[in-house]
Amino acid sequence: MAVFAARFAVTIRSMSTITKYSSVFTIGLQNTFVYRWNYFLRALFGLIPLAGTVFLWSAVFKERGGGLHGYDYGSMIYYYLLTLLVSNLVVPTEDEWQIATDIREGQINALLTKPMSYLAYRTSIFLSGRLVYSFVTLPPIVVIFIYFREYVVLPNDPLVYVFAAISTVMAAFIQFFITYSLAMFAFWILEISTIVFIVYSFEYFLGGQMFPIDIMPPAVQAVMKWLPFYYELFCPVAIFLGRLKGPDLVQALAIQTAWLICTWMWARFMWRRGLGHYQAVGG
């Protein structure tokens, strides 16, 4: 009887927790949907760099007259189409600035008095934001895919879709936990923009947005594969393109899982240290 009562209590607490963060998710949807046109315009103007990339690689391949590390012009364009799609699915939108504002303006005080994890609270808002952002920005991306449909080659192996989806989800959470950790610097400094832009510059260069990682020299690739940036964007795209197979695929997913755990633990650590500092100075 005591065991049954304990299990029932755990079930009730779990349902209460799910209901609580589901409510946060719903509120996040409502708040984020207000900015749907901002997101649409951002996605629309985000296509301008893609146009520049198309012209750049067109000139490169015409000059070379051949392929580049297994890429031809078509597969290179397809790579950038996939990076555009994945980045719209996984990259946080304004989360670091919102968290920093919560800290700087003392808005977290209201949450500290409630039985709620701030990390779980922000995760719920992040997920709701990603849902709305993806819903709003996917139509122009679909149009671009249709325009370049002659370069789109879908995988024949169903497992590729599964592994690419798993990698994309992990990439989203890795990016969010890094964003969350960066925002925690607001406990110590007034303005976090410099730190954020430095880290984002590394992400842009080392994450595969500027160029495919696997066109780099092998020694450079070997180093980059151990950095988290490799798994924030390039990894799911490379899996979908079939450029990570067999042992390389297993290794990539294992390292990505390790970075997911590490960034989650670091996010929790930064929150505890920052909150301790915040309370010590009378926040």
Strands, count: 0
Average pLDDT, rounded to a whole number, is 83
- Terminal-residue CA separation: 46 Å
Tally of individual domains:
1
Tally the helices: 12
Query: What letter string, H or E per element, gives the SSE order?
Result: HHHHHHHHHHHH
The gyration radius over C-alpha positions equals 21 Å
- Which structural category do the helix and sheet elements fall into? mainly alpha
Low-confidence stretches: none
Strand content: under 5%
Shape summary: globular
Largest sheet: none
Helix content: over 70%
Any overview of this molecule?
Helix 2 (36-45) crosses helix 7. The chain has helices at residues 2-33, 36-45, 47-64, 73-90, 95-104, 108-112, 118-147, 158-183, 193-206, 218-224, 234-240, 246-280. It has one domain (8-280). The N and C termini lie far apart (46 Å). It is mostly helical. The protein is 75% helix and 0% strand. The radius of gyration is 21 Å and the shape is globular.
How is the secondary structure organized here?
Elements: H1 2-33, H2 36-45, H3 47-64, H4 73-90, H5 95-104, H6 108-112, H7 118-147, H8 158-183, H9 193-206, H10 218-224, H11 234-240, H12 246-280
Brief account:
The protein is 75% helix and 0% strand. It is mainly alpha-helical and 283 residues long.
Could you list some keywords that capture this structure?
283 residues; mainly alpha; globular
